[in-house]
Amino acid sequence: MSKVSISSKKPKLSFWQIWNMSFGFLGIQFGFALQNANVSRIFETLGASKDELPILWLAAPVTGLLVQPIIGYYSDRTWHHKWGRRRPFFAIGAILATIALFLMPNSSALWMAVIMLWVMDASINISMEPFRAYVGDMLPNEQRTSGFAMQVFFIGIGAVVASALPYIFTNWFSISNVANEGAIPDSVKWSFYMGGVAYFLAVMWTVFSTEEYPPDDIEKLKAENAKQGLWDGLLESFKGIFQMPRTMIQISAVQFFSWFALFAMWIYTTSAVTSHIYGTDDPTSAAYNEGADWVGICFAVYNGIAALVAFLLPVIAKHTSRRVTHLLALVCGAIGLISIYFITNPTMLLVSMIGVGIAWASILSMPYAMLSSILPVNKMGYYMGVFNFFIVIPQIIAAGVLGFLLKFFFGNVSVYALFIGGASMLIAAALCLIIEDNEEEIE
After folding, report:
1. Is 22-208+241-434 a CATH 1.20.1250.20 domain?
2. pTM for the full predicted model
3. What residues does each domain of the chain span?
4. How far apart are CA 284 and CA 273, in angstroms?
5. Cβ atoms within 10 Å, residue 303
6. Residue of 83, 434, 432, 443 whose CA lies nearest to 255
7. If you ran DSSP here, which 8-state letter would residue 64 be given?
8. Cα 225 to Cα 74, 131, 247, distances in angstroms
9. Of 242, 290, 402, 404, which sees the most CB atoms within 10 A?
10. Please, are residues 195 and 30 in contact by the beta-carbon 8 Å criterion?
């Protein structure tokens, strides 16, 4: 790959170049999928009640709120002649996240598991945020929808395997999925160990198989960095929320309600399925752990659907528009979440997950494709980090609101949280109509 400045006209990259630069997301999603499918299970095993789950999950969005804009800001201002701009952050995050994935399932008390969630989520965010900016750095506008679709493909594949790992270890390798009270089952432990290895190897593949375009003026970048103190960098990162372009504000509103719905699903699907369909709230029972394993399969299905749909979305967007494509996908997701309330047969949950998977594919690609087309190239990482506020703020609000709503209005019946999530996703779909998208040269 020949090196050109990031502000000049970028050449189109080949399929395999886009493949290599996106491959690290396979590993990143191993980490997120294991977290999303198993953390509530771990918390309940260690003694957490249903109404406590959202607050305990607060670690995930808060670390994103703190880490991603800062990493985005500083990755814009990083350049190393060998490691480049974004790849140092990929590598550091991979090392830390791998360690956290090995430690998380060995938590012996609830407070330890909460601390490890903080560490694990912060480490994953260090790797993930620069990957979003990487597409904007490396691809011309007409290839960005395809570039984000490739990321979604790897996210889907990684999450399919990672989400299904406890089920696979239990049913294919006869590793126990039950344990004594207060202990994490061996099937979950081995899933996290495998996830740690996959995370490290996949991210390092991208680190060593890709190059980056240098900034226009490296000496000017070094001079600016020498003047920039840590506090100045932190302050500017958080000021960005008040300096967003108009289209970014519109997309952020859609993101807010989309991610409120997703967080409700990640927190409460295990509790909803085990109580609503399997009829138990006892984390030590065989029925509970069978239901929890089935949630992993459900999450694998929606991520598998996302991987399949990822390459269809650019085609639909080309013939309609990116905002209409996103609207339709979110409606599918809303129907999927709401339908869980009416299901009593575990197998039928897989039908619900089809709709969720379609929405997930679009949430991970269309907003970023629309956003990257209107952002200045020299602040791509910075604005992608600021954009993350509208992923983590709704999660923080969900953490504060969902437990209260369930406890005082819905009798701690977890399936209602998924119904609320579906309603939130419908609001996100309606808000797609206000987006003013720059759709020149969509491929």
Report:
1. yes
2. 0.73
3. 22-208+241-434
4. 15
5. 31
6. 432
7. H
8. 9, 22, 29
9. 402
10. yes
